[in-house]
Amino acid sequence: QVHLRESGGGLVQAGGSLRLSCAASGSMVSINPMNWYRQTPGKQRELVANITRDGSPNYADSVKGRFIISRDWAKNTVDLQMNNLKSEDTGVYYCNVVRGGTMFWGRGTQVTVSS
């Protein structure tokens, strides 16, 4: 079993920044990568960024150059630094991992960007 807890969401003006954090507990053996998804109004949940165990990041085109994902495997945390936020970044952000074919999700953290 894996438990994920997100934090760091909030309300920010367009152009501002937020930093999300995800703390994972439980067995993290064989988990790779760690992912951040978001659910924006009217859209399906989408992968925003992920990072592999060797530190290789991947980003959705919509956030490239603005978001930075980082991880601390020893502490089982993954952070998402979000810069130059836009109104279309508004949504609920979820931390996600896959283990043994099962997807584990946190409860999510709300990010609201006002224009």
Give a short overview.
This protein is an all-beta fold and 115 residues long. Helix content is 0%, strand content 57%. It starts with a strand and ends with a strand.
Structure write-up:
The protein is mostly beta strands and 115 residues long. The protein is built from no helices and 11 strands. Strand 5 and strand 6 form a beta hairpin. The protein is globular, with a radius of gyration of 13 Å.
Shape: globular
Helix content percent band: under 10%
Uncertain regions: pLDDT < 50 for 5+ in a row? none
What is the tally of helical segments?
Answer: 0
The run of helices and strands is: EEEEEEEEEEE
Strand content: over 45%
* Structural class by SSE content: mainly beta
Q: Could you give the count of β-strands? A: 11
Biggest sheet, open or closed, and with what strands and sense? 7 strands, mixed
Report, as a whole number of angstroms, the end-to-end distance.
Answer: 40 Å
Cα-atom Rg, whole angstroms? Answer: 13 Å
Average pLDDT metric? 94
Give descriptors for this structure.
4-stranded antiparallel sheet; 7-stranded mixed sheet; 57% strand; 115 residues; 11 strands; 0% helix; mainly beta
Q: How is the topology of this model organized?
A:
Blueprint: E1 2-7, E2 10-13, E3 18-26, E4 34-39, E5 46-51, E6 57-59, E7 67-72, E8 77-82, E9 91-99, E10 102-105, E11 109-114
Parallel strand pairs: 2-11
Antiparallel strand pairs: 1-3, 3-8, 4-5, 4-9, 5-6, 7-8, 9-10, 9-11
